[in-house]
What does this fold into?
Amino acid sequence: MQPRSEMNANKEDQLTHFGYLQIPKDEKVHWVRRHFNTVAQKYDFMNTVLSFGTHYLWKQIAVRMMNLQPGDRVIDVCGGTADLSLLAAKDVGATGEVVLYDINWAMLKMGRPKVERSPFASNVKYVQGNAEQISFADCSFEGAMVGFGIRNLTNPQVGFKEMHRVLKPGGILMCLEFSEPVTPWFRWLYDFYSFYIMPAVGKILGGCAPAYTYLPESIRLFPKPEQLSAILEEIGFSAVTFRRLTDGIAVIHTGVKK
It folds into this structure.
């Protein structure tokens, strides 16, 4: 008979988090898909409202830090509604290519009109797929980026390993993700805003308070910048750096495949 302690450990190994809620690991992808199906139509609008438009500036800085070159091939993992893809497409030019890669069709669908209205429609491709099993060969891209999506994976480390795999040697990884402010008074204000104001605004304007309760909970459970840097180095990235934005509300990590 299996000892109770081993049974409990095995049970914990089969669980993961969706916000603060513990769920079976094999169900998280369905929870995440349902979550983004719910918010997809108002995703861009709510991002702009809740961040006071700052997310656009964060994304511009993040893509600029990749130093992409004309002709580069880039994968935008968990690319959603294409904001990062469009910024990267501008940098890689007509001879480059950006693959917008996301598991959620509703999000890809919402991003498509923005791409088609842009001058870069011909060099942005769409692929629906799982970030933990990227459907491209080894060493396929000069750049891999993920913006506000890695924390939604069942196993973010597997997602980073997949991005490392599909990068060419010398290719750059960029991860833009939420974190917590470093200044104590601002962190208190941010916590109040995140746990009380955001769900209320989400209910009134987005029609779904639980979706905007999940957001701050998932941020609090995500590794801190120093921890994430160590994870990326362990995976095999070199020259790993991070840059805090807006006192640490968002953080840009970069690393290079050796």
Observations:
- Confidence is low (pLDDT under 50) at residues 5-9.
- Residues 149 and 198 are 19 Å apart (CA to CA).
- The first strand starts at residue 15 and ends at 18.
- The radius of gyration is 18 Å.
